[in-house]
Amino acid sequence: MNKEILSEQTIQLKVDSLLAKMTLDEKIGQMTQVRHFEDISEEDIATKYIGSIIHTQGPLPGDTPAEWQAKFNRLQRKALSTRLGIPLIFGVDAIHGQNTFEGATIFPHNIGMGATGNAELVEKAARITAIESRATGFNWVFSPCIAIPYNEKWGRVYEAFSESTPLTQELAKASVLGLQGAFLHDSTSVMATAKHFIGDGATDYGHEGGETHMDMVAVRERLLPPYITVVNEGVSSVMASFNSLNGIPMHAHKELITDILKGEMGFEGIVVSDWKGYSRFGENAVINAGVDMIMAVEGDFEMYQEGLKRGVESGEVPMSRIDDAVSRILHKKFEMGVFDQPFATGGLIPKIGTEAHRKVAKQAVRESLVLLKNNNVLPISPSDKKIVVVGEHANNSGLQSGGWTVNWQGSTENYKGASTILDGIRNIAQGTVLYDENASGEDFDADAAIIVVGETPYAESFGDIGGEMNLYQLHLTAEHQRYVDHYANQGVKTVVVLISGRPLVTTKQIQQSDAFVAAWLPGSEGDAVAEVLFGVYNFKGKLPHSWPKSEEDYQGKYGPNLWDESITPLFPFWFGLTY
Ligand code: BGC
To answer: Is-same-fold flag (8-349; 356-554)?
Structure first.
C-alpha cells in the first residue's frame, strides 16, 4: 500500500516539476496527436513538440515489425532531442487483435466476444492484443469500444460487446485488465481506451455520429455503468464520441466530460478526441469541455495548435485547463515508464501470430458461435460421403473478418496467417468436400450443404443502414438468398452459417434451413468454425443481442431490445442451442 502511494507521489512530483518548466508551445505540443505521415514532417516532432503518434489507415510504417519499430524509434529520437526530451506515445486502432498488421492474430469482433460471455477469454485475447501491439511498436490502443448499441442499423454494432449493460460492464473490465496487464509499465502492457464517450450506439436511426436523445437518468442507467467499471479498473484513456447528446456535441459536453467523467467518476487518465475532433466540434470549446489530447489529423494540425494558442493568450482557454490536460498526459507517460524505456525493442516480435496466440483466438471463435436452429443435421459426421460448401464467405478470410482488418474498412481478400471456414471443413471431413462458390453446382445428392453467407466488410459510417451511404441492408442480398434456395429447394440438408456484424432479419432463411448458425465476424481463425459444425466441440455461444423478427421493428429509434418492450424479437437476448 505504502509503496503504491509513494510511487504515485513520485510520479506527481515529476509531473509537477516538468510542467513548471514547460512553455505554452511545449504544452500544446503534448496535447497533439498526429499521424506519422502526411500530417507532419519528421522535423515537426521536435519543433512542434508532438505528444503522440497514431497509426491507422494509410501508409504503413514499414513491411516488417522491425521496420515498424525502427520508424517509430526514429520519431522517438526526434522527440527526445527536444529541450525537455519528453517521449512520444504511439497509438493504434487494435480493435480485435493488432488488426493493422497483416499476420497478427485477429480475434472475433467484440460482438462475437460478447456471445462467448467468457470474461477470462476476453482478458486473454486482450493480453495477446497488447503483446502484438507492443511488438509492432505501440503502447496505446484505441479499444475497447464499450458502446451499448440500440439500433442494429448502426455500422459499428460489432465493435461493441452487447446490447446488455451488465454484460458490457463485465467484458469491458476484462478487456481493460488484459490490455493494461498487471502494471502499465510492464513491457507487454498498453494503455487501453474506452470509447466512444458517450451515446455512440444510441443515436437516432443508428446513424454514426448522429443525435442521441436520452435523458440523463437513462444515460446513467444504461450507458454509464461500463465507463464507471473501467474507470475503477484504471483505464488510461477515454475517447470522446462523434455524436451529440440532446443537442450538444459530446466533444464539447463539459457536464459529461469534466463534471461527471473527471469529477464525479474520478477519471484521472487522458480524454482523447476522435478524428479531427477539434475542427469538427467547436475548436476551443472542445478543450474547455475537458478533452486533453486532440487527434489533429488530415489538415487539422496547424490550425489546432495555432487556434489553441490564440485561445490561451486571449483568455478563452484558462491556463489551468491546459495544465490539467498536460499533467494527465505526462502522468500516463511516467506511469507507462516511457521516460525510462522510450524505444520499442525486438523481444516481442517473435510473438506475433504465434500458434499459442491463435489457439486462444480459435477458442474464441468456437465459443462465439450461436446455434439458432438445429433439426438434427448438426453435428455433421466427419464420415459423410459428400459435403458441399457454398458461398464466397466460406473461403475468404477478409470477408469473414469484417471491418478494421488489415484495412480500416476491412478486406475482401485472404490475408496472411488466416484460415477459412472451408479450410477447417477440409481438415475434418473424411469424404469428398466440394466447393460451389456461387451455388451453380448440381450435387444435390450431397449429405449436407454448408452455406456461408452474410455481410461484406464495413466500418464506421460506411456500414450504417439508411443515412447518407446506405450500402447495406438488414437482410441477405438476393444473391445470397439464391444460394440458400438453390440447395434448400432441392431438399438437401442445409446448414446456413451467417457471417455478420449484427443480427440480420433472417426469418425466412431460418425457416428454410435445417440448421442456422450466427457466426458473427470470427477473424483470422475461420477454420475453428468447422470444429463446432462437426461436433469436435459443442456450441457455447449465446445471443449478445436480441434477434429481430422483421425490419419494421427497426423503423423507429431503437431496436427490439431492452428499450422498446412492445417489440418481440424472434429470439431473445442470450438465446443459444447446444448439442
Ligand atoms: C473512430 C475511432 C478511431 C479513430 C482513429 C475514428 O474515426 O471513430 O474509433 O479510434 O478514428 O482511427
So the answer is: no
Check if the beta carbon of residue 286 is closer than 8 Å to that of residue 248: no
Distance 26 CA to ligand 1 centre (A): 25
Atom number in ligand 1 closest to CA 57:
12
Number of the ligand 1 atom closest to the C-alpha atom of 242: 8
What CATH architecture applies to the domain 8-349? Alpha-Beta Barrel (3.20)
Q: Give the three cell numbers for residue 353.
A: 501470430
299 Cα to the center of ligand 1, angstroms: 16
* Candidate list 102, 159, 274, 455, residue with the active-site label: 274
- Taking the domains of the chain in order of start, what are their residue ranges? 8-349, 356-554
**Angle at which helices 119-135 and 355-368 pack, to 10 degrees?**
140
Map residue 79 onto helix, strand or coil.
Answer: helix
- What is this structure's pTM? 0.97
Q: Extract the C-alpha cell encoding 500.
A: 455478420
Is residue 442 part of the annotated active site? The answer reads: no
Q: What is the pLDDT of residues 193-237, one digit of tens each?
A: 999 999 999 998 899 999 999 999 999 999 999 999 999 999 999
We find that the CATH architecture of domain 356-554 is: 3-Layer(aba) Sandwich (3.40)
Instruction: Identify which of 119, 219, 223 has the alpha carbon closest to the alpha carbon of residue 176.
Output: 119
